[in-house]
Amino acid sequence: LQAIIPLLLISILSLFYLYFYFIGRERYFIKSDIVVRKVEGEATGLNLANFLSSVNQSSFEDALFLKTYLESPQVYEDLKYKMNFVEEYKKKGLDIFAGINTEASNDKKYNFFRKQISIGFDSSSGILRIRTIAFNPETTLKLNKFLIDEAEKFVNQLNQSVYKRQKEFLNKEQVQNYKKVEKSSIDLSDF
Question: Structure pTM?
């Protein structure tokens, strides 16, 4: 029995070595960091948390929304228009573990997509980290760039929404102030 354990251990290690160095497909990894900041001029409130933190609360929330969005099925669906995800990640060669079956359900393909990306948020620095993995460097770069472009679109839409709300508020205030001035002018002339 004692002679079998070392032999079994050597056999298992040999199988791992064989898989990782001869059978397994190469994987390529890219990491990008994004800082999400609010547009200037938006009131974020003056409080101790904002004062002590390097990240204001609204930027923190936006970064978390962005993280959720980048991991969403919507982004996976949009990716299909930019690249043939299943073709790039399909199973090939002797490696039966790496890749996606081309006949898999859409849910399995989406779950596989989620495993190829990692979106992390560092709350102390306000940095959103995007990591992508693929079987060739071109696909890894393409997927990473796609996620960065989607992040930029998302943040721009948020900022435009804030700008529109601020503009509507200012227009409303302008109309109200004009009415007050006009009323005061009439009251003064009647006096």
Answer: 0.72
